[in-house]
Queue: 2 jobs
Job 1
Amino acid sequence: MSDDLIHLSAADLSAKLASGEVSAVEATKGHLDRIAGVDGDVHAFLHVNAAALETAASIDARRAAGDELGPLAGVPIAIKDVLCTIDMPSTSGSKILEGWVPPYDATVVAKLRAAGLVPLGKTNMDEFAMGSSTEFSAFGPTHNPWNLDRIPGGSGGGSAAAVAAFEAPLALGSDTGGSIRQPGAVTGTVGVKPTYGSVSRYGAIALASSLDQVGPVSRTVLDAGLLHDVIKGHDKRDSTSLADEWPSFADAARRGLAPGSLHGVKVGIVKELNGDGFQSGVKQRFSEAVALLTGAGAEIVEVSAPSFEYAISAYYLILPAEASSNLAKFDSVRFGLRVNPEGAARSSRSWRPLASRASAPRSSAGSSSAPTR
Amino acid sequence: MSEITREQVEHLAGLARIALTPDEIDKLTGELGHIVDSIAKVTEAVSADVPATSHPIPLANVFRDDVVGETLTQEQALRGAPEHDGTRFKVSAILGEEQ
């Protein structure tokens, strides 16, 4: 039973929850069992929520009492460790914040709870979300469930791997320069970076504030739409949150299921992305995806974005500038580890170790982590 | 290529209070040089007809009345502190240290 449950999409699971065929406790138990079974190999989770079954039971009780519940009530979800949770440690993959339990929930987490989703735990990530492989977590790497010798992408490799390994039907990620989308591609899951300002950043441990955005991770497009519908919307606590009303992406995904639904839709393909550097097979799959869109009625046009040439260089300026400003708060005054290593010759002040330094052995290759940089 | 030197990296590491190994200093000298080179690349794109853009999203400053809103209690705010005296954060001294 529970083995079937974990393979359901969030949409199908929520239909079974609504009809009473499955309880939130059964759904949660199924995923917790899966985590216990495979996460020793995958290492998608940094923390498993000990209160998950209790939360699930309260959702079942509310449903039994006839409360009006949201469409995803009772569906379990994994949460990237960059997001603050009042009842679970939130480390952003860093030893600096090891064991820190925030005094408040991120707005997106509060929205999940209000919608009745059941947090399963916190997922692994590159330290402070700087990385593209989840090899640079201070708590050890996450492995790709399709092949444990491969990376799951990053920085949100934990969320993507959890969803790909059927440890959770849904997860939240955060994306600054690809940290949701690239792990989605690498693990065969769906990952979306929503429009900047459409999802609150309050309570997301900041990397580069003008680029960070929280978004959904799932196994189907419809599920990503359902989750985005839960987390979107204006938040007075995030001064870059937009006041716009956002249409339902879940409704759009359902409309997209109809045959020929893409008639009249124009899809642009950026010609600057058609360069070198792709592994064999990537372009072939891309062409196949384009053919699927054409078959569904879409019109394909080539577009040009000449400034793409400057994107990486601009990113290399914006990200370190904003990240160094944001990470300055981990100065061991209000947050962070205090260490006085032997032989700190320059001063008696505490030396501020970055996580990778406070953690276990560094590689002899002297690879310096991005946060150190 | 940029002119970032090992000495500059050592100086920066001291300011940031990060202890680096010699290998790390070598690696970071190259990496920081790459970041500085990025400035030159972005500068190529700058021309008089491109207005300065801080963000593509139409955002304006957000103000509110200066009244007390929902706040953390002292206990909540201090809960994650490495050290506190019950009402305040305790921090390492930075003045009057031995030179």
Note: The domain at 6-45 of chain B is CATH 1.10.20 (Histone, subunit A).
Job 2
Amino acid sequence: MNLLNALLRDPQVVRNWQAAEWNQLLPLARSARLLGRCLSLFEQHDLVDAVPPRIVDQLRGALIKTRFLHVQALRELRHVVRVLDRAAIESAALKGVAYLAADLPPRGWRSLSDIDLLVREVDIARAESALQRAGWVPNGEFDDYDQHYYREWMHEIPPLRHSKREIEVDLHHNLAPPVSRIVIDADRLWHAARTVSDGHGFAIKVLAPADMLLHNALHLFMNDELRGGLRDVVDFRDLYEHFRAEDSDFDHTLVARAQALGCERPLYYAVTTGQRLAGLQPSPTLREAVAHAGPPAPVAALMAWLIEHALAPGRLGLRRTRVANGLLFIRSHWVRMPPRMLLRHLGHKLLLRRKPPAPEPDLPG
Amino acid sequence: MTADRRLWFRNRPDCLSDPVCEGVCFDPATGETHFLGDLPALLLSVIDSEPVSVDRLTQRLTGADAIADDDRKKMIGALLFLEAAELVESRFE
Amino acid sequence: MRSSDSAFLDTLGVFYPGRAPQTPTCVYDYDIRVYRPFSMRRWVRPQIQFEIDHLHPFEPHPAENAFPMYEWGLNWCIASSAHRYLMLHAGSVAFGDRAMILPGTPGSGKSTLSAALVLSGARLLSDEFGLVRPERGDLLPMPRGIPLKNASIEAIREFRTDAPLGPTYPKTRKGRVSHVRPDDTSLAQQDRPAVPRWLIFPKYVAGVAETLEPLDKTDAFRQLAFNSFNYRLLGDAAFNAVGAIIRNVDCYTFRFSRLERAVEHLTALVAETETPGT
């Protein structure tokens, strides 16, 4: 637990904060990509006057950048969907850009640098070539191994980017990798998906509310990049609160859907982590449902420790955080690859590829 | 010219224009600022969410039913420029 | 700001006197540390590491360049987060509360010209970042050391033999660099904003006679937007702010070669422009 988690659980704590606390919060929120969420929390709870102006400036600055990315993400989504529509390929927005298009609460603060779309497995090759013909190019260099990794083992193709714009496009054909232990029938997702308008009369498909939450849970606990993980936990909380306010029966729907899609364990992790680290308040129905879905007690305790040190380090740059991240990285591959494949993949990653440091951005001065 | 047979429209919020600098406008749908010449700026001001033909646009701009071939080419050039700038869209009739 | 490098702290003390690195009661934007990482290299070729919020966005640099690297790292912090403001890539100086904005790409001579104006009595707002509050359209001062590169160092020495220059760093990634220390008045008035009144696009051209030419407002709009770090990012707020600045300023291009004559031209322009209310 750190100050950011304390703030997410109870925003009123900031009334007692001194400079030392604020100085700890800023780097934590910056690295978790939650600066915008902090500002919206302060606004919701009428706390902006209790925040030092310098901090408010930083939070507003972050939110301005986020709003720019929102415009660019929706613009990219329109372009991609237009191309896919013309090729008669159905697509659905996922994650951040779906929250934007469907005007769900994370729209108020959530940053994003890429957009994710779901297409059917039979369409994915055609979708990729349609986009490439229309000016999208692979974003980065991918050797044969990478290509193989994305296409054969994962549920996506290497990321694309239009040569004139900056937002990355990730196409998926499922929410969980085909080789992982959780197998999701994508047809069921398509069946439940609904159509929304992006606010300017542009129609776009998004997942059903329960599927959106389960995707969030899957993504958080199967992803190898846990650094941004706390943001996913906060997304889960915000979406859950929103859907529940809209539909009093939502808890039952969510639990039933988790069972139907075989996602009880990810839902267990999302709910328990949200409670501990992000002030999530699940209903008794949900709490009870996930109570039976956890791993055996020692594993649950270990996972809680790992997740806490990876997602909520006391401060940045701690050795414990790196250890926890390392173990979770291996675990995330463990749950999505058969052991033999995992060894090959990790071996390849560790031995053959040490990326050179990023070049320094060019700046005056 | 295939562009000749298309319908033109803009299904987004209007651009903001600068009150002093003519042709300078901001498109909220893309976040881009454009520096438009006279003809594209004029055209943009008469295109809305209803898809219309080049002839209809001509009528809106000049009040006349027909224009010289050269002027028509210029109109189409300006429309294609606006489309490349993501300021208008087109579809076939 | 914290550092264990005493040579670096001494330089910092010369440039920002009385601005103590940090006190426990102060809220800061970034947690910055400048230190020598522990390694064998420490004894052979000492290096300096720039740390922001416990992260290391840059490779270590040779220790003797600690101060230029600190200034550069600080610019990086500002450019990547101060989106509350429209950040013009421009020098800016003030005459009273009226500001002159001098945008320019590297090599245009904007830093040198800003330094010369400040050495002639103008107040330094910033040599690099014109920080505009979009909702008010005024400039916030951020007086820091003005980095002069290569031949500009001699040009300023020639312009004012007593110019307060810091140490010269012969080998930075930008070549030879020396900083002009901001004057006490500019530092004392760093909370006093200024309203843009002149927008001047300087261009150093060797041997040219100084010429000030009025610039079309639409061109000025385009160039000011182009010379901004975060114009696109701020969207309609930047569009409106740039439009408002363009409406309120006189716009010129300015070709110059001799600092003495250049400063005369610009101060004459200021004297000619009526102050509000007279």
Note: Residues 2-92 of chain B form one domain.
